[in-house]
Amino acid sequence: MVENFDRRQRLIVALDVATAEAARKIVAAVGDSAFTYKVGMQLYTAEGPAVVRELVGSGRQIFLDLKYHDIPNTVGSAVREAAELGVSMLTVHAAGGGKMLRAATEAATKVNPKLVVLGVTVLTSLDEDDLGTLGVRGGLTDQVLRMAALALTNGCRGVVASARECPALRAEFGSEFAIVTPGVRPAGSGHDDQARVVTPAEAMAAGASHIVVGRPITEASDPAAEARAILGQIAA
Question: Up-side HSE of residue 46: CA atoms within 13 Å toward CB?
Answer without folding.
Answer: 15
